[in-house]
Amino acid sequence: MTEWIDVGALNDVPVRGARIIKTREGCVAVFRTADDQVYAIDNSCPHQGGPLSEGIVHGAAVTCPLHNWVISLKDGAAQGNDKGSVRTYPAQVEAGRILLDAALARSSKAA
Amino acid sequence: MAEKLVVIGAGMASGRVLEELFEHAPGRYDVTLFGAEPRGNYNRIMLSPVLSGEKTYDEIVTHDAAWYAQQGVACRFGEAVTTIDRARKIVVSEQGETPYDKLLIATGSQPFIIPVPGKDLPGVLTYRDLDDVEAMLSLAKSPGSKAVVIGGGLLGLEAAAGLKAQGVSVTVLHLMPHLMERQLDGPAGYLLKAELERRGVEVVCGANTQAILGEDRVTSVRLEDGRCFPADIVVMAVGIRPSKSLAESAGLATGRGVHVDDAMVTSDTNILAVGECVEHRSQCYGLVAPLYEMAKIAAQTLAGETAAYTGSVTSTKLKVTGVDLFSAGDFAEGDDREEIVFRDPARGVYKRLVLRDDRIIGAVMYGDTTDGAWFFGHLKDRTDISEMRDTLIFGPAYAGGAPLDPMAAVAALPDDAEICGCNGVCKGKITSTITGGATTLEAVRGLTKASSSCGSCTGLVEQLLAVTLGDSYAAPTAKSVCGCTDLTHEDVRRLIKSRDLKSIPAVMQELAWKTSCGCHVCRPALNYYLIADWPLEYKDDPQSRFVNERNHANIQKDGTFSVVPRMWGGITNPQELRAIADAAEKFNVPTVKVTGGQRIDMLGIKKEDLPKIWADLNQAGLVSGHAYAKGLRTVKTCVGTDHCRFGTQDSTGLGVKIEKRMWGSWTPHKVKMAVSGCPRNCAEATCKDVGVICVDSGYEVSVAGAAGMDVKETEPLGKTSSETEAIELIVAFVQLYRENAKYLDRPYKWVAKVGLDWVKARVVDDHDARKALIERFDLSQHVYQKDPWAERATPSVEQAWSPLANLTLEAAE
Ligand code: SRM
Ligand SMILES: Cc1cc2nc3c(=O)[nH]c(=O)nc-3n(C[C@H](O)[C@H](O)[C@H](O)COP(=O)(O)OP(=O)(O)OC[C@H]3O[C@@H](n4cnc5c(N)ncnc54)[C@H](O)[C@@H]3O)c2cc1C
Ligand code: SF4
Ligand code: FES
Q1: For a FRET experiment, which of B165, B350, B591, B628 has its CA 20 to 30 Å from that of B413?
Q2: Could you tell me the pTM of the whole model?
Q3: What pLDDT does residue B171 have?
């Protein structure tokens, strides 16, 4: 069973935007979609490591700000002809707070 | 025993009669089919694609040997009928006599040859059948060959385009003042001419051919006014005459064509006639749609049924790839008529409806013909349009306030709207075929014949597939903004204004975006259009901006940012330089660089430090240089009269004034300017979006240069004697660009589309228009000329730009 950790308020993340969470293994980007779904994925684009949190969010996908790869927020996979994927993490919203897998706070990113 | 039916002419009309007849009365007749051409029925209207090389002859055959065999048709191809003996009920041909019980005359028409000297020289061709196409192609083979096409009507232009596609250099000589004068009015004819010229076809209107010159074959064509055009081939396409001589000499009633009644029967009850050779109710036709209607009636008459043909209203399209043109009905001007005109010079779109007594009697469209079928439907139905008059020209999408779906134009068509003019197929027939299981273009084509002739309704048929099948059918899209919409940038800009759409959701809802919230391509464009069109009402959406504009800094490959403060006209001072040096030290800026735009770049700054460094720079009076913006970047200057021995005016001062007036404005793409103090041009003003060269007598303002991915010199916009007027020209130019250009078109690309003359007419010549442009620019500046750094150098932004949480600390526990 997943153990959750509160990382902040939903309203601290802009709609169709993202914020980053620092972990010991690197940054995780927390996205909020137009319909208030929340997703957490690695902040590093599978292409050349672009900061995905700075991309334009559309539907449940983000376009990387560096060279426009489109990454699915649901499974972290690059869309279209691009190959590669980023790691995704369980995330949910409860009473206006964003909860992530507590494993992220421990030594390794792996749950 | 079966009756004997003899058919004269294996053309498009007779082919259709036989098809219908075998369906209505199988086995009733023993058919003998005479054709003067050494081949069976083929789709004559597809000769143009054969000429241009887009199709082969085999692809346009409509009935092959197997079909004739299966239907038991005795084919006599390559054999012309020379006499009809009505008393003995026989026809006479090379091979002798053939008896008939019923006779069908379908001899079509023949090209008209203007009686000028030299008309019989080898190399002078007409354009009617496959032999003509083959002759043109064999003569056009040698490289560098030249063709003159006499006649700028439908056939002449298709011949010209086809020959051009084969690499022949082509000149069209047309007697009338504009092309296709029977189908188009002046403005549309003008647009068509311009388009053909853009493709390299020379077009000469008002050209009266006097003689075709040459010894043993054609060498040139001479006009009455003495002009001469060299030619290896001359194609005469000046009109057609119904082939009625056979019928005439048999004593049948004829006029311009063979007279027929509503049952398609001639003055002899055993003889019918169909196609271009007939004259029905004083009308002769030269398009397939009416011939197919006639064919249906003729088949029914032959099958012993009662049926009546009552005449046709026709519409025209030109089958030249990439040319969109539609015309129908009567579009001449007249006292009893009113017209509605829509023009879009930027897109080359022209539409005109001619109305009489609140009914459409004529329609001409160029550049955008999507609504043609809808207008044509109302024209044929004589619909009273008084209710929808105001929005009529915009098509069905507007009528009755229906939502403006890109497919709505097609979705809104009534079931009896004709989609395929050639084959007379209505929307209802197509949609029922689709719902009946035909889910591909080929299937619909096979079952309904829609789009199987000239093919120009293929797009509509595909849209019907899309409308009927929904998402399961993907219609090919034309240069749309992105996959979220079928509309082009230009359409979207027009609709935002004309429909008062003032938010991204409003645009997406009303224009039926296919995605819930757009994508990284359309959202920044929409955000810009809304900012530019509604500076007061629209609220900027940072989430629809690229990272750089959202963060007011340029992102680097490692995710850090660069910061470029403004240096007005490239001028700085010790205090500013000190502030930059201090900030660079304080924030450990790894690289400090002088840019190509006369200012200083600090590269490698962490996002969360941006608000802090901005605050420090603001302290010294430095503001954002917008080095990240689709907006005003730099105004480069040279030292001018202040220092330079050649300077004619205060170029530095003017550059600073321009930059102070225009900074902060958002534009379709970035805008860079420069002011040079003399024609030595040290500020490189002649390759900027806007450049000023100072001269003794004043200021030469030029625009639309480029020095990035393309390199291009600016073009002169105007010359002024005062600084004030120079600035006015520049402001008005930029505002015109802001209001009209497609997102991500630099000014040089936009000017190339609309033409510098169009720009000058508004910015230079029309003082009221200039004033209004400047007022709108200033209005927008009053909202947007704010230093984004000052607004964001706050603790709350600093917090919002920092990580949401830092789990590394917790992990340390
Ligand atoms: C910093 C600078 C290079 C330098 O070190 O000198 C620069 C840097 C960049 N240029 Fe540039 N350009 C710089 C002067 C130019 C110039 C010369 C000029 O302005 O006089 C040109 C040619 C003129 C022109 O604008 O076309 C130029 C033509 C481009 C282009 C091609 C634009 C085009 O329409 O062809 C791009 C790509 C684009 O904008 O889409 C570009 C894009 C870029 C970007 C923003 C690439 C990007 O998207 O990340 C670079 C950002 C680096 C950064 O992080 O700061 N840069 N760039 C110059 C900043 C000038 C300034 O003070 O603002
Ligand atoms: C290049 C070109 C492009 C066209 N494009 C279009 C278009 O886009 N849209 C459109 O609607 N229309 C178009 N048309 C017009 C269309 O092709 C004609 O309207 C149509 O073919 C006329 O059909 P028809 O059967 O009456 O005559 P035809 O198709 O001309 O058939 C008549 C046949 O009868 C034969 N014949 C004549 N006399 C005799 C005789 N005595 N004995 C035996 N055989 C005889 C002729 O050789 C000919 O083969 C185009 C025409 C051409 C030439
Ligand atoms: S030329 Fe401009 S865009 Fe290209 S690498 Fe240099 S700074 Fe970057
Ligand atoms: S780094 Fe993301 S697309 Fe290149």
Answers
A1: B350
A2: 0.52
A3: 97
